[in-house]
Amino acid sequence: MNQVMTEQEFIDLAEQVPNFVMMKLAEGKAVSYRSDEYPDLLLREYPNGRLESIDVDINTGERITLAVLREGISA
Prior knowledge:
Helix content is 27%, strand content 36%. By secondary structure, it is α+β, with helices and mostly antiparallel strands.
């Protein structure tokens, strides 16, 4: 059974994404996402603040770092 989201449900879900990202980073986990700040890139952010542009090999699932957009803070 396919269920279609209403426009408001989609907006509500989209508004929760930044909170989810921040929660995962606070847990010490890296997160991959897209951002309006870098509209054509898939991003990977690490708890130390490092931000990378990434791609994923669809054959192997391997994550490939294309560029470091921001260095992280060394512990």
